[in-house]
Design brief:
By secondary structure, the chain is mainly alpha-helical. The protein is built from five helices and two strands, in the order βαααααβ. The protein has a two-stranded antiparallel sheet.
Length: about 70
């Protein structure tokens, strides 16, 4: 089983504010599967840097508005 990532995200919130965009709609716009979006949203998978930027571009926000990495301090 894959180790959960420490990266958190606001995908669900951003989708809701984007006229309740579905996971399938986001997946199609980014070029990944719906299952990939589900795994990213649930924190079970970290997207590649390219996919992360593509997701941010879909919502027209900076990368750090979508994904956060908690510090060790």
């Amino acid at each position: 089983m894959a180790k959960p990532t420490r990266i958190t995200n606001r995908l669900r919130e951003l989708r809701f504010h984007a006229q309740e965009m579905t996971q399938a709609d986001l997946a199609k716009r980014v070029g990944v599967t719906r299952q990939t979006i589900i795994a990213i949203e649930q924190g079970k998978y970290s997207p590649s840097l390219e996919v992360a930027f593509q997701i941010a571009n879909v919502f027209k926000v900076p990368l750090e508005d979508v994904f956060q990495y908690p510090g060790d301090g």
